[in-house]
Automatic annotation (TrEMBL):
Gene3D superfamilies: 2,3-Dihydroxybiphenyl 1,2-Dioxygenase, domain 1. PANTHER family: CONSERVED PROTEIN, GLYOXALASE-RELATED. This is VOC family protein. Pfam families: Glyoxalase_6. Residues 19-133, 147-262 form the VOC domain. It comes from Streptomyces liliifuscus.
Length: 264
């Protein structure tokens, strides 16, 4: 991963098209999930648009950071964090997704006066969202504990889907030159905003290609201990990397995410 510095979309301005602008989680147990993340990250919650059922927005110091929605009881979908990428025209972006071999599963549709959205998947099956902002601009704060700090696509082969995202969102690619590490950093206007990590046969069979959201924490090891006390699970123990100390975890319903203490 690469630390995304100077994220657009903060201080009341719209996110630059192509940049991750929001993360959202659909769950079965709304109350328990809010309690888990509220305790882990210090989030408070306010009602959001109810266009897809019960939905709340998580806030940190009064700034919106993420969304949590209620899955219908008859829908047995994977519980997963989904990143949304900013678009000036979600209908055109959805058309481009289809033209490039992806699938649009939801929308485009209006989220009341907040904006317009679509939920899609790339040709390999990884799910992501597209957000055209109106009243709701997206994540309002980053770079502090409790906020999303990076989004990374975990897939079999980075080159197989990189062209798709480049065409759909206008990303510029910066591959890592390494014989044993398949990674592409995606840039917008020269700034790193997301990554694609090809893991080959190490791709989890029960999940397939998927987007991973990294949340900043003040202390990774303390966060892991607290997460376990709250009923979460540690999937990959804390480890030091060139970009900071990182661990991969899951919440009580099984939504996978990573926590990171990024290096300055």
């Amino acid at each position: 991963m690469t630390e995304a510095r100077g994220s657009a979309g903060l201080n009341g301005t719209a996110h630059t098209p192509g940049t991750p602008c929001w993360v959202s989680l659909m769950v079965h147990g709304m109350a328990a999930t809010q309690e888990f993340y509220g305790d882990l990250f210090g989030w408070e919650f306010q009602p959001g648009p109810q266009h897809l059922g019960s939905y709340v927005r998580a806030q940190l110091d009064g700034q919106e950071v993420a969304g949590i929605g209620q899955l219908p009881p008859d829908r047995h979908l994977p519980i997963a964090w989904t990143p949304y990428f900013a678009s000036d025209d979600v209908d055109l972006t959805a058309e481009t997704v289809r033209h490039c071999g992806g699938t649009v599963g939801v929308g485009p549709l209006d989220a009341e006066d907040a904006g317009r959205l679509a939920i899609a998947s790339d040709p390999a099956g990884a799910v992501f969202g597209v957000w055209q902002a109106a009243a709701h601009l997206g994540t309002g704060i980053t770079g502090v504990p409790g906020t999303p700090t990076w989004n990374e696509l975990i897939t079999r082969d980075s080159s197989g889907v990189a062209k798709f995202y480049e065409t759909v969102f206008g990303f510029e690619e910066e591959p890592v030159v390494s014989a044993d590490f398949d990674y592409i950093t995606l840039h917008i206007k020269g700034r790193p905003v997301a990554g694609i990590h090809g893991v080959g046969n190490s791709l989890p069979r029960d999940r397939g290609p998927h987007w991973m959201t990294y949340f900043e924490v003040a202390d990774v090891d303390a966060s892991l201990a607290h997460l376990l006390d709250l009923g979460g699970h540690v999937l990959k123990p804390a480890r030091d990397t060139p970009h900071g100390r990182i661990a991969t975890v899951a919440d009580p319903e099984g939504a996978v995410f990573s926590v990171v203490r990024t290096t300055s």
